[in-house]
Amino acid sequence: MIESRGPVYQIPLWNCTAWAGPPPPPATNVTQLHIQDIKVIMAVGDSIGAGFAMHSGPADEPWALRLIEYRGDTFHMGGNEGQYSLANFLKVYNPDLIGASVGETLPLDAIKWKEGVIEPFVPHITHLNAAQSQAKIENVAKQVDYLIEQLNTTYAKTVNMTHDWKMLNLLIGANNLCGACFNRSYADPDYYEQTLDAIVGQIYQNIPRTVVNLIALFNISQVHTFAMTSEYCRVMWKDIVKTECMCLQGDATDADRLAMDVRTVEFNRRINLVASRWQAKQLLEFNVKVQPFAQNMRIPSLSYLSELDCFHPHAYADAAFAIGLWNNIQTPDAEKESDLNPATIGFQCPTKDTILY
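User: That's the sequence. What structure does it adopt?
Assistant: Structure tokens below.
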């Protein structure tokens, strides 16, 4: 068993309720969107979005039972009953919401072998969560392709592509940042920005009536501080998962971790630049918003990191992320919180007139 992992703060009880009486008229353009207007929820991203190892158990549990993506519990797309997630919060106001994930997958389920041995996704579990473990930003275009294909086949009878409003959550960049200290080409800010802009363009061209939430990146290197307080984590990082993020783990130095920090700030600046360019187009049926709830978050304790690798978010963190994202989408840009604090977080409940931002 691993050592004490530090405090876990009480997650507040869900206290928002669906309102009585008729809702406002359906939105006719993106500036009028209300909570209940969202019919479809989707996601692209990496292992954080896939929920890798968020419920991993004791250190002596067989490894084969711990290498799991808990997609049904992810902060943005989880559809498991009772789970805190943006998808489940939205369902309170639109019970017919489509796209949330349920259940679990193995990371290998996200790999397409040349022989076709392993399918790229398990659609009855992933639904419209296309996030893939180990993905970098250059892998996201294929994830969007998967969503387009699913919307036009599996969901052709339940989703009206030209009429139904959709929300797509995009969180990507952690694996790119893990190459920052080596000046890898995939960690270059220009490359990140150009690729992100192209992905947004791909979504715009193929998935109409969509709001894209660009989720700002948090400071990944801070997990090092807590990992070093645990003998189990030190062994994991030094000998077992030392290549998971080489600017952070293994033989990485303080200078390597600082390079990640500096690049994270720049990546977030580029995320905002991409969003600003698309907002300037003033499109009536498409918008791109930055949701910065965790951008300046300080991890409160080791308990918020996976018990498997001391790197990925634990379920406690995902629950807090869910509330932060939920609050962000209801808050005007200038007022959005960016320093999520699990010790003080609370629910912001919408009214009939609440607009999505």
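The first strand starts at residue 38 and ends at 45.
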